[in-house]
Amino acid sequence: MDTDKNCDFSPLKQELQAQLTSIAHRLDRVMADLDENDTCLLNELDEISKSFMLSSALASSYYLKCFLSPFTDKYDEISQSIMRIRLKRLGALIVIERDVPVADLISPGIPLSAEITSSLLESIFVAGSPLHDGAVLIKGDKIVSAANILPLTKKRFSGRKLGTRHRAAIGLSERSDALVLVVSEETGTTSFSLDGRLYPFSIPAPSEGSEFNETAAGSAAAKR
Question: Helix or strand or coil: residue 191?
């Protein structure tokens, strides 16, 4: 994945290094405690798992914001809608157009030309909505259209079963520089496709990520 040369990832790297070093120390303690038969490791392993998730969410936030910020001022609204859609176990497919126009690469859906809000994005993907099938197209700070049909990738993925949304996301990102966000209805997992590749990412709910929010805010302040 080629990162934007204008993005300063040094605060992210410093924060991740600190977090991963802490996790490594915890793992060392767990390994040492394995010889103690009366020691319960479940709580410690659970905390380590949570720390990994927070590190993943921190990295996801930085990368996504880096890729999207030059092309839309609505990153916060988009990320909030993704988080809510995930929690409700709805499926979603969102295309953020960057430098390369995608109009000639997709089958057009329903024109909207609406200002981006998290509530509007969420409502589009509610099951039963006439717009929930297909992809939302975002350009700048506008939702251009919904229910667009994207080209599917022809790649074969050994050992992985990808649904239509994921294959559509990869298919469009193979043909353009668009960034395509995907929420899986079946698993609730989130990913984005860029340059024909699929990457997992996570945006924690407020109850899941108070520690992450404090960390990200501190790192963002350092970045500024």
Answer: strand
Where residue 157 sits, what CATH number does that domain have?
3.40.1700.10
DSSP for residue 64: H
- Global pTM reads 0.77
Residue 124 near residue 136 (C-beta atoms within 8 A): yes
Residue 48 lies in a domain: yes
Q: How far apart are CA 102 and CA 171, in angstroms?
A: 12
The candidate with the shortest Cα–Cα distance to 201, out of 59, 17, 37, is: 59
**Is 88 part of any domain?**
yes
User: Are 150 and 135 contacting, i.e. CB atoms less than 8 angstroms apart?
Assistant: yes
Domain hosting 81: range is: 10-223
Q: Considering the domain boundaries, does residue 2 fall inside one?
A: no
Number of domains present in the structure of the chain: 1
Q: For each successive 10 residues of the chain (224 residues), what is the average pLDDT? A: 62 84 89 71 85 81 85 93 94 97 97 97 93 96 98 84 93 98 92 92 60 42 40
